[in-house]
Amino acid sequence: MAKSKIIEVQQVTISLTDFHGEDYICITDMAKAKTDESRAADVIKNWIRTRTTLEFLGTWEKIYNPDFKVVEFDHFKTQAGLPSFVLSPTQWVEKTNAIGIFSKAGRYGGTYAHKDIAFEFGSAISAEFKLYLIKEFQRLKEDENSRQKLDWNLQRTLAKVNYTIHTDAIKERLIPEKLTGKQTSLVYASEADLLNMALFGKTAADWRAENPDANGNMRDDATLEQLVVLSNPESINAVLIRQGLNQSERLTQLNQIAITQMTSLVNNANLKNLK
């Protein structure tokens, strides 16, 4: 679970967190906009026990949760509205195997709900609060997208700079003197495809054949992780060239490096937070 993020809605501080790649909002924090902190749990319990809320939660789970226990849900729904019916978020999750709501302890503890459900809970606070909540959430996502785009452009630039270092090594060690421009370009293409094969498992020509309608090239289509990894083999290949290794030996080493680094990056929590 990713570290919590914070937004402020009508002077109420609300925590958000990433859960299985989705945004969840702390409805315990939201409830504080309607009552004091000690009674926030009661606001949630009163909301979740109504038939309208249960129908919304059950419908959401049926759409997104294949392991949702519909029979248990139907049992709760028949009791909804009765004076004796009491239901907490923890009971809801334990009995129905729901994933739209969860509770956690700690500094950013409380009851969290998927953004769809949190926005619905906002109606229990007030229409005005709900609208400001949606507005602040959208602002947060726009800021995150801007940071991700900036980071992607930075990595793209880094890959280009390292490629210049790489081509300088080719000039120094691989290109015989007095070759024609066409011969020189063929050597460059060969070395570029060496890196493409090491990381992407295909040449630029293979990629173009598979993506005839795509704009740009395979590196323009690369993911953030691929661009980060790509900047490293380019520099390493320059060193291997100066060491006199042939292409077959270099391809084997570069491929292993790409596999190791890509495996590390896709499991890196900090990089996931940029997404």
From TrEMBL:
PROSITE patterns: KILA_N. Pfam families: KilA-N (PF04383). InterPro entries: KilA/APSES_HTH, KilA_N. Residues 3-140 form the KilA-N domain. Coiled coil: none annotated. It comes from the Bacteria. This is KilA-N domain-containing protein. It comes from Algoriphagus boritolerans DSM 17298 = JCM 18970.
